[in-house]
């Protein structure tokens, strides 16, 4: 897998430092509250786990699975709900945990969905923000790194369900996804 990486953008140590910083910020924001923390599957699973351990505060955890990439390197533009949360969020504080905000379509879908379900507040924590890819207005409250407009994998992010288990975030060599 490592041979398929053009360059490492963020090392395991850099990611952990950002997780710790975000954990402190989230704990401060939700002091005295018990938010519902919703991880967006599958990409955010590693980040969600690390963030949950870095937040010294009560929380309830749930997951949602949505897709707009459908195995491709670019968003299809259509967001599909694959698996819903099990928690009633009416009147609750919700924190969405994303691996990356690129076009913003998935995030906008989630923000609208949770607002329509009566969430008291909705905030977003994303490990990676790619503003150059933004197609709709959707912003995060807690951001780990701003990334260039390159195809990144690792630490949960994938290409064709591969590379999620890399402990760092790297840029995938273009020949890997252009030859398929």
TrEMBL record:
Task: Read off the Gene3D superfamilies from this record.
Answer: 3.40.50.2020
**Does Transmembrane helix appear among the keywords?**
no
Which residues are in the Phosphoribosyltransferase domain?
Answer: 11-159
Report the record's Gene Ontology biological process terms.
Answer: GMP salvage; guanine salvage; hypoxanthine metabolic process; IMP salvage; purine ribonucleoside salvage
Kindly list the places in or outside the cell where this protein is found, as annotated in its UniProt entry: Cytoplasm
UniProt keyword annotation of ATP-binding present: no
Q: Could you name the Gene Ontology cellular component terms for this entry?
A: cytosol
The record's keywords, sorted A to Z, are: Cytoplasm, Glycosyltransferase, Magnesium, Metal-binding, Nucleotide-binding, Purine salvage, Transferase
Pathway membership of this protein?
Answer: Purine metabolism; GMP biosynthesis via salvage pathway; GMP from guanine: step 1/1; Purine metabolism; IMP biosynthesis via salvage pathway; IMP from hypoxanthine: step 1/1
**What residue stretch is flagged as signal peptide?**
none
The cofactors named for this UniProt entry are: Mg(2+)
- Gene Ontology molecular-function annotations: guanine phosphoribosyltransferase activity; hypoxanthine phosphoribosyltransferase activity; magnesium ion binding; nucleotide binding
The name this protein carries in UniProt is Hypoxanthine phosphoribosyltransferase
Q: Which organism is it from?
A: Lentilactobacillus parakefiri
Q: Which gene encodes it?
A: hpt
């Amino acid at each position: 897998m490592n041979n398929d990486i053009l360059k490492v953008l963020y090392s395991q140590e850099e990611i952990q430092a950002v997780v710790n910083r975000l954990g402190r910020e989230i704990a401060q924001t939700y002091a005295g509250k018990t938010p519902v923390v919703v991880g967006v599957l599958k990409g955010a699973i590693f980040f969600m786990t690390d963030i949950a351990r870095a937040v010294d505060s009560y929380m309830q955890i749930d997951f949602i699975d949505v897709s707009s990439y459908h195995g491709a390197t670019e968003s299809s533009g259509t967001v599909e709900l694959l698996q819903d949360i099990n928690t009633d969020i009416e009147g609750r504080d919700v924190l969405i945990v994303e691996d990356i905000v690129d076009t913003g379509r998935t995030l906008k879908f989630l923000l609208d969905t949770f607002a329509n379900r009566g969430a008291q507040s909705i905030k977003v924590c994303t490990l990676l923000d790619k503003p150059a890819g933004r197609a709709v207005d959707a912003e995060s409250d807690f951001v780990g790194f701003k990334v260039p407009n390159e195809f990144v994998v690792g630490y949960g992010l994938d290409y064709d369900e591969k590379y999620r288990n890399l402990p760092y975030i790297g840029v995938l060599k273009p020949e890997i996804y252009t030859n398929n």
